[in-house]
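Protein Entry — a single chain follows
Next Lines — sequence and tokenised fold
***
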Amino acid sequence: MKFLALLSSMPFESDTILDCSKHVRTDIIAGKQVYKAKFAGVEFLICNTGIGKVNAAHSATFLIENFPIGLIINFGIGGAYPGSGLQTGNLAISSKEIYGDEGVITSTGWDGMKEIGIPLVQTGGKKYFNEYRMAPGLAGKTRASLKRITHHAGLITKVKPGNFVTVSAVSGSHKRAVELEKRFNAVCENMEGAAVAHVCTIYKIPMLELRGISNIVGIRDKAKWDLTLASENCQRAALEVIKNVI
């Protein structure tokens, strides 16, 4: 049997899923808590990776090395780029994950890993530099399934697919947010997704990524953020995926 693995960076991003699950058991692997649980007849693993690329890659790797993993869902909160049309509480589904700051700073500005000429991953005759696609077809099925819950009170009001950008330093100004949005034709920014996609590519594990929108990228006024709404909507979406898509 292959497991579904759910990865979020922080506990508040997964608590609702655990509360809705049955037969929850815990273990400590590589210094991190791993939950094994069941929802809608699907047995799965949950791990809170910690924030950032290294923590996310570490968690994805030790789960794959210790369990037969059939699919990884990376989920949690994220920031929407200003031109995405997304608002707080909406949901974004990744079609592609992109490392937004791996590369080189040239005299004309930033360029990606292709400018260096060394791929981050090379497998199956293909070279991967900054970009990693999600599981073919799964994002589309997920979007179609989530349409059934978008009109319920208090739940997601909009679901949008698009490119995600993973950064080490979040965009703290409108200028930087617009720069990355235009450069990568992206809808959402986060700090873990590309690292998980990177590991999944190495191990040939399919991946899906969901993000509840907590804020508009570049606006550092936390009074305008809603981490709770974003997290709750994302977890409800993840539960819908487990029940009707997996």
Remarks:
- The chain has one domain: 3-244.
- The chain has a mean pLDDT of 94.
- The two ends are 14 Å apart (CA to CA).
